Structure formats: structure tokens, C-alpha cells
From TrEMBL:
This is Alpha/beta hydrolase. The lineage of its organism: Bacteria, Pseudomonadati, Planctomycetota, Planctomycetia, Pirellulales. InterPro entries: AB_hydrolase_3 (IPR013094), AB_hydrolase_fold (IPR029058), GDXG_lipolytic_enzyme (IPR050300). The keyword Hydrolase applies. Keywords: Hydrolase. Residues 79-271 form the Alpha/beta hydrolase fold-3 domain. It comes from the Bacteria. GO terms for molecular function: hydrolase activity. Pfam families: Abhydrolase_3 (PF07859). It comes from Novipirellula rosea.
């Protein structure tokens, strides 16, 4: 969630006092999360079913299917959550990842979830929606043509938090939802994820300080946390390398698999489609990780 700063100023010339006051108000810096407007064009999902309705809000899954896919198939499925600081963002951020995985035989989904800019929500609702999405996918396995025991959750930045929270946290289930259907994915693919919300070095602790222990994935690792791969740039100004290394160490202390891939001199969002070299490098590593779990076969097909 790198920030872009814009400064709006008016030309300086003789003005009445009230105009000078106005000038001082207008001459401000406005910070906008870069991921807020992140959108990837040129890709089209095959279908967009509604998985959840809250009031007047319908949340959809943007589904990419392998060629000749049938509802009777039993394929692995990946569900991605976009970044944007729990404030903004677009599911299309992960359209390229979805199209690639679909070409490799996995049903791939970019999920919508509620965000502050559109729905005036908090991080709690983001996690609730993430859990709802995983449950809906499992409940509709026969329609989607997927194996409910091969569910991958992925995401970038705050979307990485949502994905990791579905796998680690017990709280934040939607009222009335069938919690007998597990929201815990079978694997995690996390791109510079916000997985530490603690008071010491955790990202955006002030937003979740009243319930941080319940929502911070790094503080809820257990012996059932699914195998995980993490991608991070060494110059990420939001997620320190030490945080990722600590996450990996705690995963391994609980007997869980965690791969950490560090990319020298790269900042936040380095993995996105527009960053061709690092998009390809991280997607190739993701492919190999999923192949090691038996979720796809053969070598990566990136050119």
C-alpha cells in the first residue's frame, strides 16, 4: 500500500485575507493508497456468481475456468483477495494469476469483499467475507467442478491478510452462516501479506487495536495452519523482512510448512502483473509450490 502524494496549490498573488486562508486550506498533501485504484485490464472471467448478500450489497466471485472444464470435474480451486488496505482495491488485481492457473488446470477465482471506501466497513467485515467466500466455494463444489479438499486461498497485502485470516483465526464468522462448513483453506499463497497486526511492528495496529489478538494471523498460528508460501520484497516499507521471517519460524515451530521467497531491493506490490519480471518469478514459484502439493501437474508454462 505504497502512498502517492499530490499537492494542490494556487498561484501566489495579492489576495484578500479570506483568500489567503482558503489557500492555506487547499495547499495540502493528499495521500492515496496505490492499491486503492489498482486495476488490471485485458482479462475476463468466465462467470460471476453472487456468493453473499448483505443488505443491498451483493458480493461476487470472478471465476476463471480451465478449457473444457465441466461441473463433474474435481479440480483444485484458488480464491484470491485483492489488496488495498481494507479500504479500496479491485478483484481484477488477480485476474492475471487466475487466468494463468486456469490455463494450468485449476479453477481460479478473484473474490469481492466489503471495503471501507464502498461499504464503510472495518477489517472485521473483510475477514467475515473472506471466510464466507471459502465456505461458499466448498458448499458449491459440485457446481464449480472442484475438489473441496483442495482449496487454495491467496492474496496481496491486505488481501493477503484476509486469506491468512481465513486459515488462522476463529472469530469473525458471519451471523447465520453454516460454520460446520470449514473456512480453512488447504494451502495459502501470500504476496507481501499483512499478517502481523500486533502492537510491536504490526501493520495498522491502530485500526484493530481493540481486537488485534483475534484478527492477527501471525498471532494465531497453530498445528493446523495450512502449508504456506510467502513472497516479499526486501525493501517493502510496510512489511518488514523480520516479520516474515518470524512468521516462517513460528510456522515451523508448529510443525507447519512455510516457504519464504525474498526479492532483493523490491518494494510493496512488486509482484503485480505490470511488474513483468517479478510477476513471472512469483507466479513460477507459486506454480511449483502448488505442484509440490499435488494440485497441478507438470512444469510451469510461463514463457
Amino acid at each position: 500500500m505504497k502512498t502517492l502524494s499530490y499537492r494542490f496549490t494556487l498561484p501566489m498573488f495579492s489576495l484578500p485575507m479570506f483568500s489567503l486562508l482558503l489557500l492555506s486550506v487547499l495547499s495540502v498533501s493528499v495521500s492515496i493508497p496505490a492499491a486503492f485504484a489498482l486495476e488490471t485490464k485485458g482479462f475476463s472471467p468466465d462467470k460471476q456468481p453472487v456468493y453473499k448478500t448483505v443488505g443491498d450489497t451483493e458480493l461476487k466471485l470472478h471465476v476463471f475456468e480451465p478449457a473444457d472444464h465441466k461441473a463433474t470435474d474435481s479440480r483444485a480451486v484458488a480464491v484470491f483477495f485483492f489488496g488495498g488496505g481494507w479500504v479500496g482495491g479491485s478483484p481484477s488485481q488477480f485476474y492475471p494469476h487466475c487466468e494463468y492457473l486456469a490455463s494450468r488446470g485449476i479453477v481460479a477465482i478473484a473474490a469481492e469483499y466489503r471495503i471501507k471506501s464502498k461499504h464503510n466497513t472495518t477489517p472485521k467485515e473483510c475477514v467475515k467475507d473472506g471466510k464466507s467466500a471459502i465456505r461458499w466455494v466448498r458448499q458449491h463444489a459440485s457446481e464449480l467442478g472442484i475438489d473441496p479438499n483442495k482449496v487454495i486461498a491467496g492474496g496481496g497485502s491486505a488481501g493477503g491478510h484476509v486469506a491468512a485470516a481465513t486459515a488462522t483465526t476463529d472469530a469473525f464468522n458471519e451471523n447465520g452462516e453454516d460454520t460446520s462448513v470449514s473456512c480453512v483453506p488447504n494451502a495459502l499463497v501470500l504476496f507481501n501479506p499483512v499478517f502481523d497486526n500486533g502492537p510491536v511492528g504490526g501493520w495498522s495496529h491502530s485500526k484493530v487495536k481493540d481486537y488485534w489478538q483475534d484478527i492477527s494471523p501471525a498471532h494465531n498460528i497453530s498445528g493446523t495452519t495450512p502449508p504456506t508460501i510467502v513472497f516479499l520484497g526486501t525493501k517493502d516499507n510496510l512489511i518488514p523482512v523480520a516479520t516474515a521471517e518470524r512468521f516462517k519460524k513460528n510456522m515451523e515451530a508448529n510443525g507447519r510448512r512455510c516457504e519464504l521467497h525474498l526479492y532483493e531491493d523490491q518494494g510493496h506490490g512488486f509482484f503485480n502483473f505490470g511488474k513483468s519480471e517479478y510477476y513471472q518469478a512469483t507466479v513460477k514459484a507459486m506454480d511449483q509450490f502448488l505442484a509440490s502439493l499435488g494440485y497441478l501437474q507438470g512444469e510451469p508454462t510461463l514463457k
